[in-house]
Amino acid sequence: MAEGRSAPGSCGVARRLLPVLAVLLLAAGCRRDEAEGFAVVPVQPAPALEAPRASGAPFRLSEQRGKVVLLSFGYTSCPDVCPTTLAQLREVHRQLGAAARDVEVLFVSVDPERDSAERLETYVHAFSPRFTGLRLEGDALAAVLSGYRVTASRRYPDATRYREHRFTGELPYTVDHTGAYFLIDKRGALRERIPYTLPASQLRARVERLLSEEGPVNVGDGREAVAVPAVVPASADVPGMRVEKALARLTPAKVGAVYLTLVNTDGREDRLVAAESSAAERVELHEVVAEGEVLRMLPRPEGFVIPAGGRVELAPGGKHLMLFSVRDSPASLVLTLRFERAGTVRLTVPASAPGADGP
């Protein structure tokens, strides 16, 4: 590149181009396998990452030599993908046993406007006190997103849908963002970019392989991961429709998701058209849709069709009921489901504590 003085306004243009460049560079420098993710070829140093912790002490990725680092991006108001990601990382920690002391788990917020350092720390520590949440703003965040080729963009709700249901607090936008784990070895090299859907056992195997490589020795702090027991699911039924394995998973950000299985026992197609709960300001039908590595949280006001004699699963990373402005931290909540043919189904759904295992 020729040296010389930058043209006026070139920095501003560059900043605006960062998200575009991030998308264009998604596949550059990597070898892709749809099922397994990306192996970085050739191996290269992980992009710099520095941010203050909630305590104010600085975190520097460059100081983590001797540890394997698992990095992901998300935000605390996400009711589905991000809790699933962190629960998966906690399970990896549990499976690693004593070796987990040499693994650093990082969660970088892509929503700094809502995620204060304190809120982020509370959220991440609900899954494990050993995990680290990092918050950056402005150009610092843009540089990290660009360096790791991560996309993040807000999705605001359709205003016409809320004319009769006005929110009293913050506007409940969601953030479409890249869903992936970034695996960094003990020398600080970025080795793999892995889909968040990879099972915990396979992700653990990747981490163990890097732990077995020669590198700087790390003593660790001796703390061990703690497994959280799962919650017993609920069920209910009415003529023509059975609801199984219902479970609400809440987050410290007062949003949550309900997962369940709908079984149509009738000979005609039915449709779930609405849901309500006194424990939340509003309940909506949502679905996570993957477009490449970018995960979009889309409302489904048309409802979910349950085929005649068939079943539909609402599960992490797919269809779910999104809870807005959850009141307090209930151990269970009363949920009302409305179907076109089967009518109303009312059931009590156990609610998991933040960070507890999902269904």
Mean pLDDT figure: 81
Question: Helix-strand pattern, N to C?
Answer: HEEEEEHEHEHEEEEHEEEEEEEEEEE
Helix residue percentage: 10-25%
CATH superfamily of the largest domain: Glutaredoxin
Number of helices: 5
List the helices and strands and how they pair.
Layout: H1 10-24, E1 30-33, E2 37-45, E3 50-52, E4 58-60, E5 68-74, H2 81-96, E6 103-109, H3 117-125, E7 132-134, H4 138-147, E8 152-155, E9 174-178, E10 180-184, E11 189-195, H5 200-212, E12 234-238, E13 241-250, E14 256-264, E15 270-277, E16 280-291, E17 294-299, E18 304-306, E19 311-314, E20 319-326, E21 332-339, E22 343-352
Parallel strand pairs: 5-6, 6-7, 13-22
Antiparallel strand pairs: 1-2, 2-11, 3-4, 5-10, 8-9, 9-17, 10-11, 12-13, 13-14, 14-19, 14-20, 15-18, 15-21, 16-17, 16-20, 21-22
Could you characterize the architecture of this molecule?
By secondary structure, this protein is of the alpha+beta class. It has 2 domains: about 15-210, Glutaredoxin (3-Layer(aba) Sandwich); about 235-350, PCu(A)C copper chaperone (Immunoglobulin-like, Sandwich), CATH 2.60.40.1890. The protein has 5 helices and 22 strands. It has helices at about 10-25, 80-95, 115-125, 140-145, 200-210, and strands at about 30-35, 35-45, 50, 60, 70-75, 105-110, 130-135, 150-155, 175-180, 180-185, 190-195, 235-240, 240-250, 255-265, 270-275, 280-290, 295-300, 305, 310-315, 320-325, 330-340, 345-350. Strands 8, 9, 12, 13, 14, 15, 16, 17, 18, 19, 20, 21 and 22 form a 13-stranded mixed beta sheet that branches. A 7-stranded mixed beta sheet has the order 1-2-11-10-5-6-7. The protein has a two-stranded antiparallel sheet with strand order 3-4. Helix 2 (about 80-95) crosses helix 5 (about 200-210). The chain is elongated, with a radius of gyration of 22 Å. Residues about 1-35 and about 215-235 have low confidence and may be disordered.
